[in-house]
Design brief:
The protein has 256 residues and is of the alpha+beta class. It folds into two domains: 10-160, no CATH class; 178-255, no CATH class. The chain is 38% helix and 15% strand. It contains ten helices and twelve strands. It has a three-stranded antiparallel sheet with strand order 1-9-8, with no helix packed on it. Strand 4 (64-67) and strand 5 (76-79) form a beta hairpin. Helix 5 packs parallel to helix 10 (230-246), helix 6 (188-198) runs antiparallel to helix 10 and helix 7 crosses helix 10. The radius of gyration is 19 Å and the shape is globular. The chain starts with 9 loop residues before the first strand and ends with a strand. The model is unreliable at 1-8 (pLDDT under 50). Bound molecules: iron/sulfur cluster (SF4) (2 copies). One iron/sulfur cluster is lined by residues 33, 36, 38, 89, 91-92, 97, 99, 103-104, 107.
């Protein structure tokens, strides 16, 4: 079910769209890049690592901390702010966002918030709703520009982020079943899942540097795609976890 209740400071966005625009002419420019509570999704980490030329393990150590938030069985990864006055985002430069083309989902989406209902094993099962968050320090709501949700998705380059976000939301539904058992985060399965979701370069070493490829039947085209591209490898990692932890048989994935 799509939630239809709206908490204070948020309102559901309908077909009429929403009034908002952002730019350096506003006196609040970059205010939102100071001390945000910024959760990074797995696809955000892939994109930021690519932009920064960093390995995911180094990125996680240098820029993130884990936090138990909405899912009691699986941590969120949070971006750590710079230890400077105002706690700016470490990627904020004097000219604005220094990772703009690869900025995280939450930065693209703001001031919107996407609510979703997904079935982890059914394609095209997503129901979604968008909310507008009104922050008192953000003057973008006072501008005249009105846009629809599809226009915002296009303008912010959100389509691929939304698609990967839907898969990630499905994984979160599965992790809520607590597949780790009594050992919790000490279990091998938890550590494998954390690596597969958040540490794609270590997952790459696991796939291509172990007996993995002899244990599963993958077609050559898929192997080529995941060898060439960390985003494709992440999508494959989600499929593998569905098989490994939940005995599902995702498309394109067969045990040997
Ligand atoms: S308008 Fe809002 S989103 Fe844009 S810079 Fe100002 S605070 Fe940030
Ligand atoms: S990633 Fe860019 S847009 Fe997001 S908080 Fe940091 S500087 Fe701002």
């Amino acid at each position: 079910m799509i939630p239809d209740s709206v908490s204070a400071g948020r309102e559901k966005v309908g077909d009429a769209g929403f009034r908002f625009s952002c730019g350096p002419e506003l006196k609040c420019y970059n205010r939102c890049c100071h001390n945000p509570d910024l959760e990074l999704y797995p696809y955000d980490i892939v994109r930021l690592c690519r932009k920064l030329g960093m390995k995911s393990s180094d990125f996680l150590k240098r820029h993130t901390r884990n936090s138990m938030r909405t899912n009691p069985w699986f941590p969120s990864v949070m971006l750590v702010m710079a230890n400077e006055q105002g706690r700016p985002c470490p990627f904020l430069s004097p000219d604005g966002c220094g990772v703009y083309e690869d900025r995280p989902d939450a930065c693209r989406m703001f001031p919107l918030e996407r609510g979703m209902s997904v079935h982890p094993f059914k394609k095209d099962s997503v129901e979604e709703v968008y909310f507008l968050q009104r922050m008192p320090w953000c003057f973008g709501h006072s501008t005249a520009h009105v846009q629809s949700i599809p226009e915002w998705i296009e303008a912010q380059g959100l389509a691929e982020y939304n698609r990967m976000g839907e898969i990630w939301a499905g994984m979160n539904v599965l992790f809520r079943r607590n597949p780790w058992g009594p050992d919790g985060q000490e279990s091998k399965n938890f550590r494998m899942a954390f690596m597969a979701c958040y540490d794609v370069d270590r997952f790459r070493d696991f796939v291509f540097g172990s007996t993995f490829l002899s244990r599963y039947r993958l077609d050559d085209a898929l192997i080529g795609r995941i060898r060439a591209d960390n985003a494709a490898l992440l999508e494959f990692a989600f499929d593998w976890l569905k098989y490994f932890l939940f005995a599902a048989q995702p498309e394109n994935f067969k045990a040997g």
